Predict the structure.
Amino acid sequence: MKFNAGKWTSNTWMVGVFAFLYLPILTLIIFSFNASPMVTNWGGVSLRWYYALMDDREMIDGFKLSLRVAFSTGCSSVLLGTLAALTLHRFKRFPGRTLFAGMVNSPLVMPEVIIGLSLLLMLVSAQRIFGFPERGFATIWLGHTLLGMAYATVVVLSRLQEMSPSLEEAAQDLGARPLQVFFLVTLPLISQAIASAWLLTFTLSLDDVVISAFLNGPGSTTMPITIFSRARLGLSPSVNTVATLTVAVVSIGVFAASILMSRAEKRRALEMAAAYRKVD
Amino acid sequence: MATAALKTQSLHTKLTGAWGRTLVISVPMTFLLIVFLLPFLVVFKISLSEMDAVFFKDILTLRDDVIVLTIKYGNYLSLLEDSLYFNAYFSSLKIALTTTFICLAIAYPFAYFLARSPADRRPALLMLVMLPFWTSFLLRVYAWKMLLADTGVFNNVLMAMGMISEPIKMMNTPFSLVLGMVYTYVPFMILPLYANLVKMDLRLLEAALDLGATPWQAFWRITVPLSKSGIIAGSMLVFIPCVGEFVIPDLLGGPETLMVGHVLWDEFFSNNDWPMAASVAVVMVGLIIIPLALFNKYQAESTNGGRA
């Protein structure tokens, strides 16, 4: 490779960026085991903040609510996102396609304060007219689904685009009806993308502060809202322990998922190769 | 081949799929119209009203069986007159622009080196870029607070090493704010740039070098122009959300770095002035509408199979 800009520059640059990305995370983890109540003064190794976390009702209740919201968001986002991805992939021409594409993509970049405020004002207006909905679980879920749907669409759509159309065509030629084609051919082929979209929207929802802050009601405080209000006041050891637990769960989850996916990918490649061999 | 596929598809749609097609389109379409578009119209409507004692007044009222439209421009006038708002918009654009350029400067070489690294190592490296993105954004921003505070980790280490005698003021400055923004958004710049650079046809560079170009010339005249769409996508992914960012300026910013996302939040939660918050939002949408259109155009091109 004669146009490699020098191994040394390349490695240094990459190591530097990774250090930048991981330094704060490592600091959070290390200081979660700090015995001192002064978050950044090292006072020896201790698990005391983890024990304290077990009695932290506010954090635990918030976590339970966040988990419920995130689970529901994952499911609804994937459902709507898959339909939206199919629409964008299959139907190149229908009235309102540009508007549709714009509405699907915009939440990806739209500042969250705008999404939160506008949804809230609409829900409040609706409540004045119809008497519902009350702010709480359902309204947070709705807001998160709007955001999650956009991400799910991108993930599923990119899989649909790299998929070879010949498999679906073959099923059609062999007499499968559209629903059969979808459930027997398309869905299994995009199942991995659907799984990653679910995980992604689940984590996005578990992490969201701004939309939840606008849409939550009395008694529906999610975990990120609790974390945020503590972080605003200053440094808090409880936040470090939550962070460490999150990092642990996410790394294990992502690691396990990537192993499972690469296995499934290999198996599929083998099956495909076998199928094509039989045809020859 | 492509036309044949198209033909089967259209025939197939005609015969059996018309009803299904309508259903597939209309479910997400209805959801988006109600949850995304309608709220914007409501915001616009409310931005033209004013606050009653506890609630905003409706601009449409029924008086003697006649619908009366009462529009108030008051909120927009105060946006123009009060320099607080102008300063907030101006500093938001400035900070978002600075963040975008720094992200590009860090991410372009990174994505370039990543795309040219051995193919078997790329998935692992890419996962390392994605992993922080999967861990909580809020907690990662909080971590910078730990590192940069007056009694934070950096100051403690520097003082212990005897390099400084007094803590350096880093928190709640423009420095800490931009650092937090760059940190949060740099993966959004890396990923589209990588996706673009990894697809590049390296024979073009070979040709340029054979024709006597220096590596730098080849880079600036071939690689950079070819990666234009990646640069635009990444920049929009960073710039647009940065303009309205709230959490990062709240946790890491200071009095000199008032941003418009924060102004909106305060109007809503502290002043309880919903119509004012709505007009702040409407003007913010006006500021980001062109970048947003650019972003949508790029997304549409990449979803319409413009893969070349």
About this structure: Residues 57-235 of chain A form a domain with the MetI-like fold fold (CATH 1.10.3720.10). Chain A touches chain B through 95 residues (CB under 8 Å). The radius of gyration of chain A is 23 Å.
